[in-house]
Write a structure and sequence with these properties.
The complex is a heterodimer of chains A (about 260) and B (about 325).
Chain A: E1 2-6, E2 9-11, E3 19-20, E4 23-24, E5 31-33, H1 35-51, E6 54-61, H2 66-75, E7 79-84, H3 94-105, E8 112-116, H4 127-135, E9 139-149, E10 152-159, E11 162-169, E12 172-176, H5 188-194, E13 199-202, E14 218-224, E15 233-234, H6 239-253
Helix pairs in contact in A: 2-5, 3-4
Chain B: E1 5-9, E2 11-12, E3 15-16, H1 18-31, E4 36-42, H2 49-54, E5 59-64, H3 73-87, E6 91-95, H4 98-110, E7 116-119, E8 121-125, E9 128-135, E10 140-146, E11 151-155, E12 173-175, E13 186-191, E14 205-209, H5 220-228, E15 232-235, H6 237-241, E16 262-266, H7 272-275, E17 283-288, E18 301-304, H8 307-324
Parallel strand pairs in B: 1-4, 1-6, 4-5, 5-12, 6-11, 7-11, 14-15, 14-16, 16-17, 17-18
Antiparallel strand pairs in B: 2-3, 8-9, 9-10
Helix pairs in contact in B: 3-4, 5-8
The chains are: A alpha/beta (about 260), B alpha/beta (about 325).
Bound molecules: flavin-adenine dinucleotide (FAD).
């Protein structure tokens, strides 16, 4: 089984966000594998262990993403590919990323492609389905279970809390939802082995793409932080009075009930 | 610049979802005086066309086929592409729902167009349609425009105001026949887990419980409060991990994102990953016995106390309010 994982490097979930020069300030921030992509890496490893084959983790980004790719290798992936767009692209959107990934994947004969259902930074959730569409293969998003039998696939998909049981077939792209699995921590031997595993670096040129082919179709014109909320009011006094006051505040001041 | 804008009416349990009316509101802004065309896909959905019109659509195109009874990305894409082909719209708006998130990137890719997902605000500024959307789980916002092709966006439930329903409005309802074929994903079964009644992501009031709720039964008083307020029950991951409730209720970075008018957090400490799913709520109330809990830093109103005492009292007080109203 030829398995590919689409992975993004994102801010750690604990990070505070600040802005400098109109951009999100990355200085000193901790970065991680996008949490949903971590489920994808884990699932890919489990599928490989059950069915044989190879797991390749692909990331579009800059050099810094090598660290997260190494982590994926340490978890158990076999190969990693970084498509480094730092020198070529000043601005990209989901159209750009999907186009690059699809161009990379088109001749790889992937049986299964797994991504996270959304990246916690940009939060758009577009790349997975876009890549599937460009490759002309079916996809299922937000999956919580994956069963493969020959080329038949049964997946359970989370739909706003309900579950759909879906039958489809390989080649297939799926995106991971929380609940799919428990991602493993890289073991010490895993980390040692990862250092020797192949991590290739490509640029747009290597994919016969130039900037114009992948030019973004949308543009960010401003980034800002939410307005500081006025300090909240912690009520005081007898509990019964607090409850009465709260109801009255919600009704008369906030007017939400 | 007047534009023709398509809006997908999303049907759930035989009626239109609220977010579809909000999408019409959004489409009106994008249309800048142009036409808003509702689209309905399903096995038998034309009876809902008038609802779209009364909420502001100028007319409605219906595609009916047995194969559209349940949503599949292949089936819906075929239906919509046929409509897009005949209507040639300059804008498309979906709700940022499970369906909208699944379908919109496929369609955008087919149309070779951009897509702005999870929009919480729309304005016309400097000759552009400017979309506002949260990034970094609501820790920041960005304003975005489409620079090439169709203006395609999905709108987050509860953020864009729908128009007032106008029962006197009329408009054309036409049907388009499309051959739906070659579905590559087949839905075998749907397991209902989400609580009956109010949909969490669309609820105007959410009563959420955390590890402080202590057990499955501990959620009962929260359910009662939610009932009285016509709201939905949500939870922190702490509560889900402890198996007090189903993961379908989880709110936060790895759960649902909600922006109700009123969010009542009961026994939730306010971890940053939880805040990611609810901090953009209009009004936040925290009930926690620990005065130092982080949730008080984002709350508009807080009560320091035992939730098992406070929540039932609140329910009673709200009942009185409803009776007097
Ligand atoms: C990658 C990642 C993703 C995550 N995603 C999410 C997510 O999507 N959603 C999420 O919620 N969390 C998420 N978490 C977990 C998050 O970090 C917290 O662990 C979790 O939110 C804690 O849940 P809690 O507030 O219910 O529990 P706790 O932190 O244990 O807080 C319980 C609170 O209840 C109060 N309490 C106890 N008894 C009472 C009582 N009788 N009356 C009133 N108050 C009482 C306590 O004072 C305390 O403040 C994520 C973590 C990681 C690392």
């Amino acid at each position: 089984m030829n398995i590919y994982v689409l992975m993004k490097r994102t801010f750690d979930t604990e990070e505070k966000i600040t802005i400098s020069g109109g951009q999100i300030n990355e200085d000193g921030a901790e970065f991680i594998i996008n949490p949903y992509d971590e489920y994808a890496v884990e699932e890919a490893i489990q599928v490989r262990d059950a069915h044989g084959g190879e797991v390749t983790v692909v990331s579009v980004g800059n050099e810094e993403a090598e660290k997260q790719l190494r982590t994926a290798l340490a978890m158990g992936a076999d190969k990693a590919v970084l498509i480094n767009t730092e020198d070529d692209l000043d601005y990209s959107d989901q159209y750009t990323t999907a186009k690059i990934l699809a161009e990379f994947l088109k001749d790889k004969e992937a049986d299964l492609i797994i991504g996270g259902n959304v990246a916690i930074d940009g939060g758009s959730g577009q790349v997975g389905p876009r890549v599937a569409e460009l490759l002309g293969i079916p996809y299922v998003t937000t999956i919580t279970k994956l069963e493969i039998n020959g080329s038949d696939v049964k997946v359970v998909r989370d739909v706003e809390g309900d579950s759909e049981v879906i039958e489809t077939s390989l080649p297939l792209l799926v995106t991971a939802q929380q609940g799919l699995n428990e991602p493993r921590y890289p073991s010490l031997p895993g980390i040692m082995k990862a250092k020797k595993k192949p991590l290739d670096e490509l640029e747009l040129d290597d994919l016969d793409l130039d900037e114009d082919d992948v030019e973004a179709k949308t543009k960010t014109i401003e980034i800002y932080l939410p307005a500081q909320k006025a300090a909240g009011r912690v009520l005081e006094g007898e509990l019964t009075d607090q409850v009465k006051e709260l109801v009255s505040l919600l009704h008369n001041e906030a007017k939400v009930v | 610049m007047a534009r023709k804008v398509l809006v997908l009416g999303e049907v759930r349990d035989g009626s239109l979802r609220n977010v579809s009316y909000e999408a019409i509101g959004a489409a009106k802004t994008v249309a800048e005086g142009g036409e808003v065309v509702g689209v309905l896909l399903g096995a038998s959905v034309s009876n809902l066309a008038n609802d779209l019109i009364q909420y502001g659509a100028d007319r409605v195109v219906v595609v009916e086929d047995e194969k559209l009874e349940q949503y599949t990305s292949d089936g819906y894409a075929q239906g919509l592409l046929a409509v897009i082909d005949s209507e040639q719209p300059e804008g498309i708006i979906f709700g940022h729902t499970s369906l909208g998130k699944d379908l919109s990137p496929k369609l955008a890719s087919k149309l070779d167009s951009g897509l702005i997902s999870d929009v919480t605000g729309i304005e016309v500024a400097g000759g552009n349609i400017v979309f506002t959307r949260p990034i970094y789980s609501g820790k920041a916002f960005e304003k975005k425009i489409v620079t090439d092709g169709i203006i395609f966006a999905t709108v987050r439930p509860n953020n864009i105001a729908p128009l007032e329903k106008d029962e006197s409005r009329t408009g054309d309802v036409t049907s388009l026949s499309v051959e739906i074929k070659d579905l590559r994903t087949i839905i075998k079964e749907v397991v209902r887990k989400a609580t009956e009644g109010v949909d969490l992501s669309e609820a105007k009031v959410v009563v959420a419980g955390g590890r402080g709720v202590k057990s499955e039964e501990g959620f009962e008083p929260l359910k009662e409060l939610a009932n009285v307020l016509g709201g939905a029950v949500g939870a922190s991951r702490g509560a889900c991990d402890a198996e007090y409730c189903d993961y379908s209720l989880q709110i936060g970075q790895t759960g649902k994102v909600v922006t109700p008018d009123l969010y009542i957090a009961c026994g939730i400490s306010g971890a940053i990953q939880h805040l990611a799913g609810m901090s953009n709520s209009k009004v936040i109330v925290a009930i926690n016995k620990d005065p130092e809990a982080n949730i008080f830093n984002v709350a508009d109103y807080g009560i320091v106390g035992d939730l098992f005492e406070v929540v039932p009292m609140l329910t009673e007080e709200f009942k009185k309010l409803k009776v007097n109203a």
